[in-house]
Amino acid sequence: MTILIGTTPRRTFDDSRRWIAEGTALLTDGIDRLGPADPSTGSGHRFDGDSQLPGWTRKHLIGHVAANADALGNLVSWAETGAEKRMYASPEQRNADIEEAATRPADELRAWYLRGAEELDEAMDRLTPEQWEHEVITAQLVTRKASDVPWMRAREVFVHAVDLGVGITFADMPEDFLLALADDIRTKRALSDDDLRGVTGPLPGVAAWLAGRPHGMADAPELGPWL
């Protein structure tokens, strides 16, 4: 399968809101699979075990996703009130907060993640159509409309559900989301038709490859990390 820019259906705002709900449910299911290792074998998915992201445990990952909900909530607040509110105080503070989150008890992390997801959803529900058109600035210092926030969150919860390393794969994601994700990443990576020549495979594999995750396609050139 080859993904061509402009040939996939354009995602809508309602799509992104729906994908947040679906991705959050998938990630929550993954978190609910975590627990202490079997003391007799050391097996089992553990909160403090390694995620699929280099250098991060699952606690780092869950803390990052929880903090992301709070950070995107800052952008929603900016759109609602007109008072500038950046996602993070600084890149250094963001990284320090993730490291601190990795030291928290599992129950506290899970509660923070669930609370943040609920509060972000409630905050988005409050915005008017006019407020969604307000401009905000992302952590990458890119100016975007607030209406892009739901898509930003949908990507986070779906892709990091895979990164949790509990058996969730890109094949567990909705096809319409995978098409939008593949198109979005290809655009951001500025991949040409020549770059994609010979890259064929099922949609989940193509999306995983574009996202720099394990994909199982032997002939696809390796890409750097994304998200």
From TrEMBL:
Enzyme Commission code(s) on record: 5.2.1.4
GO MF term set: maleylpyruvate isomerase activity; metal ion binding
Keyword Isomerase: yes
Stretches assigned to the Mycothiol-dependent maleylpyruvate isomerase metal-binding domain: 46-164
UniProt keyword terms in alphabetical order: Isomerase, Pyruvate
Domain of life: Bacteria
InterPro entries in alphabetical order: DinB/YfiT-like, Maleyloyr_isom, MDMPI_metal-binding
Name of this protein: Maleylpyruvate isomerase
